[in-house]
Amino acid sequence: MKTNLTRSLALAALSLALPLQAADSTGYVDFGKFSPPRSGGQFVEVNIRDNLIGMVARLAATQEPEVAELIGGLKRIRVNVIGLDDENRGEIGDRVSQLGAELDKQGWERIVTARTGTEEVNVFLKTREQEAVEGIVVTILQGGKEAVLINVVGDIRPEQIATLGERFNLEPLKQAGRAIGKS
Amino acid sequence: MQTRPPSNRPNQRASLAAWLASLLGAAVLAALAAVAGVWTMLHASREVATLRDCVLTSTVADGRKEIEFSVGPLVLGLARAGLNWVELEPEVRSLLGAVRGTSVGVYRLDQAALDRPSLIERVDDVMSRRGWERMLGVLDGNNCVLAYVPTNLRSPHDLRLSLVVLDGRQLVVASVRADPEPVMELLLREARQAGRSPRRSPRASAPAQGLTIKLLPAPWVRAKS
Questions:
Q1: What's the burial of A76, exposed, middle or buried (CB within 10 Å: 0-12/13-18/19+)?
Q2: How close does chain A come to B150, measured CA to CA in Å?
Q3: Does B86 touch chain A (CB under 8 A)?
Q4: Fewer CB in a 10 Å sphere around the end CB: N or C, chain B?
Q5: Residue B223 pLDDT more than 50?
Q6: Which of 27-56 (B) contact A at CB < 8 A?
């Protein structure tokens, strides 16, 4: 069962990707291919590309121009949720650790590290100069039961994050916007 | 001396015969169209049939058809016209108005699908060759849900979606064509309303116990300092 903090962090990371401008895909991270656990545990893959995102942005433009602007340049959203069992726990844990190390090498900024006894959350940002965030990666290992990987790609202007949070009263967004604004 | 005009009877008979032939032809065409329409309504669309066959091949299972139907714009338009006389929530009416066509097939497999990962791979392969890409894949125990959208979306008001839902021995395959704008309006309206009246859960405001959080300053701030 996910904790509220984990859910909030995941939502905040997802929400960070919503403000957008057209951009290349330097914020894209290839997690590789995952196989569902043979024990029948949960396995979720979400892969939304710019074609669908752009359509949503165009549809939202008439009703909510701010929202449309926020999501208009998003390039990709990828979410993987892999249930862990005795067979894949070690491999997935290693892959997540290697991913973190690789992102550190590639110049991604690790802005959040959260650890409980059995839970670990990391949030990485890929920035372009001091203007925008090009990509976000969130990795969550939950108590040896589940691994969550999220990659959001697009040009993200931090000042729009809080705006979206205020607009829809999304607490994780407001917190993320305040945190980035204060820092 | 006055001359009589030539008799028009042959011309009249010819035009009457032509008129009857046209009427008969139109009636035959209408009957054929009606038969074709009914046949189409009682069978799955090409996308649904392709998905069904792909799943059945991958699971090495035989499927017994429980129901198949397809509904196109004409029938949906008639249904919407009929629903004008029924009291419906505006949101429901709006969502029904968004659908342009749908095809659904429900099947009972003679055995549960065993190798779901390879099932996903095969369905992905077949669908990608037909110009579809998987947007969502969920596996949980005996349940499997796959959702596909076209790789090239032509118009923001013309969204096609193909779904596979496999639950043990029951397979549901569906294809929907719709204008997503009413759905988007509904979602945005709900989001705005939720934003105006947030629900606060007691657990949400409880501080996390035993949690270490390290929040680093943003890189551009660090660069400045």
A1: buried
A2: 9
A3: no
A4: N
A5: no
A6: none
Instruction: Flag whether B111 is in a domain.
Output: yes
Three-state DSSP at B10 gives helix
Place of tokens 């009703």: A63
CB pairs under 8 A between A and B: 118
Look at residue A21 and tell me whether its pLDDT is greater than 90: no
Residue B143 inside a domain? The answer is: yes
3-state secondary structure of B54: helix
**Distance, in angstroms, between B209 CA and closest chain A CA?**
9
Instruction: Give the model confidence (pLDDT) of B15-55 as tens digits.
Output: 888 888 888 888 888 888 777 777 777 787 888 888 888 88
Predicted confidence band at A52 (pLDDT cuts at 50, 70, 90)?
confident
pLDDT band, very low/low/confident/very high, at A173 (cuts 50, 70, 90): low
pTM over 0.90: no
Count: domains in chain B: 1
Best mutation site among B209, B211, B224, B225 for testing chain A: the one with the most A CBs within 10 Å?
B211
Q: Closest-CA residue in chain B for A172?
A: B204
What the block records as the tokens of A126 is 């890929």
User: What residue numbers bound the domain in which B130 lies?
Assistant: 41-185
Alpha-carbon distance of A42 to B139, in angstroms, equals 6
